[in-house]
Amino acid sequence: MKLMFSIVAMLLVSVFAVSAVPDLEIINQQLSLTKNPGDVATFSFTLQNNLAEEMDVTFNVENLVLGSNTINMPSIGGVHLEVYDGVTGGLDEKTITFDITVPGSKLAGDYEGGLTATGTYNSSTTTPVPADVTLTINSVPAYTLSVASVTLTTPSDNTMDYDVTVTNTGSEELTTFSAAYTGDVAQLEDDDNDWLTYTFDLPTSILPGATDTFTINVEVDKGMDIDTYNGQVTLTANGETRDVLVYTKVMPRICEDGKVGNLKVSIDDPDDGDKYKPGEEIEIDVDVDNNDDDDIKVEVEAIFYNLDEDDELKSVVSNVEKIRNDKSESFTLKMILPTSDFDEEDTFYLYVKAYKDGNEDDHCDYDSIEIDMERDDVDVIITDVVATPASAYPGDRVHFAVEVENIGLDAQEEVIISVNEPEMDLKASSPRVDLQEYDDSDNDYRWEFTYDVPEDLVPGDYYIEVKVEFDDGDEYDTKLFTLTVLGDEDVESSSSVSAVTGGAVAITPAVDTINLAEGQTKFTIEMLL
How far apart are CA 427 and CA 429, in angstroms? Predict the structure, then answer.
């Protein structure tokens, strides 16, 4: 009797144990991982079908959360399980994996979420099976800078700054900041002990995923040599360092207060790096945009600058033009490049600035290009031709002056100047002279002579050819010069002028009688010389 009771009890326990096995199980869980920012966390688990029925399983997922921070769980696709066969690794089991890339901008700590599996068989569903998912992010300081290098273009006696964006890509709050100049100390000083001084404006704290600004300030001493100074700045945050290369280009002060206002100037021609010879005329085409709300009267100035010598060699200025708001205007300027007082190996820039007429501190902008100067071995040019007077009557005596200059690398012997105009019966030549190379004080020559205008010469404009020959007559330079010969009609149409030194000039009109209408008044004007 006792034996029968024991057998019955064991059967009841066995039946209870079998009935306690769930229809669907999640086993072999690898659902709690620890990773660094940027790592890939691969989670896995195995589904076990404990029924003698085929089963389709679907999933719901719950995002991983730490406080207000969230990491999204990926969706998990449904699976099909065969009937329970009691064999480990059989068709009634299936291993599921999913990946999460650890964000680089999440706070360190335990992010907790989960998943739930639900099976369906013969129109019935299993009890949902939950599983916890935990991703622990290690505390790692990391950040990026918006730039790896910056270029600051500034005149001397000025301070420039540059804002660098710092992005916290790590998993801990950045709270400790410092910055220092870590470049070549020699790049802070010029040859006459003028200095660049670096200072910094630092963030105070940056949460993971957030940004803030790190400002580099560079103060340039007055008189700092024009050059490019190559430096390096190192930012340290929570012990992590990042470098920024800083190129400080000290340039001439083109706009008195730097670039200000709403004008924008661009050089269309020439192009950067174009080659020219000393004494050559260049045509400068410029566009100026007025981005202001008001019309602006604009003046444009072109400046030819020797950077190595910090010397403005030449400049030309345009006429004033009114530019309507939100409109643009084109300007053309002509400049004859200088011939001496520089080394062609120097660095030359053409600066073009546009500014508000009379108020450069309100609106000023400039553009620049580099110009290459190439000096020939053999080169003599005519630099000036002057006739006094520029307009003469038949029988007048005219005084001519012609100036030439050797702008070449080689000295020239027996250089000769000639003028020729057959209709005027004008033909003359200078003595032969020797001209030294371009950088010698004896590299130029002025030839003067007089010419008597023939009494019977027909009035009009006469084009006189002026020529200089050099290099044994194999090379030459020419210019056409205009002399105007006046006639009787020019005398009759002109006003008679009598000059009194130190007194007044009385201008008497050719018409002697002026009839005044009612209400009109006659004025007499004296001009003092």
Answer: 7
Q: Specify the fold of 380-488.
A: Immunoglobulin-like (2.60.40)
Place of tokens 């622990």: 136
- Choices 1.10.455.10, 3.40.630.30, 3.60.150.10, 2.60.40.10: CATH for 263-373: 2.60.40.10
Higher pLDDT: 526 or 271? It is 271
Question: Judging by beta carbons within 10 Å of its beta carbon (0-12, 13-18, 19+), is residue 498 exposed, middle or buried?
Answer: exposed
Which fold is adopted by the domain 21-137? Answer: Immunoglobulin-like (2.60.40)
Q: What per-residue confidence (pLDDT) applies to 491? A: 53
Residue-wise pLDDT tens digits, 291-338: 999 999 999 999 999 988 888 999 999 999 999 999 999 999 999 998
Q: How far is CA 2 from CA 9, 13, 311, 442, in A?
A: 11, 17, 122, 141
User: Where are the chain's structural domains?
Assistant: 21-137, 143-250, 263-373, 380-488, 498-527
Q: Which of 224, 249, 237, 250 is closest to 180 using CA atoms?
A: 237
Q: What angle do CA 205, 210, 213 make, to 5 degrees?
A: 60
Q: Which CATH superfamily is domain 143-250 in?
A: Immunoglobulins (2.60.40.10)
Give Dmax (Cα) for the chain.
167
Q: Which DSSP letter does residue 3 get?
A: H
Q: Calculate Rg over the CA atoms of the chain.
A: 45
Residue 4 tokens read as 């029968």
Q: Which residue has the tokens 């306690």?
A: 20
Q: Record the pTM.
A: 0.60
Nearest to 89 by CA among 59, 49, 51: 49
Q: Could you count the other beta carbons within 10 Å of the beta carbon of residue 25? A: 17
Mean pLDDT of 248-272: 91
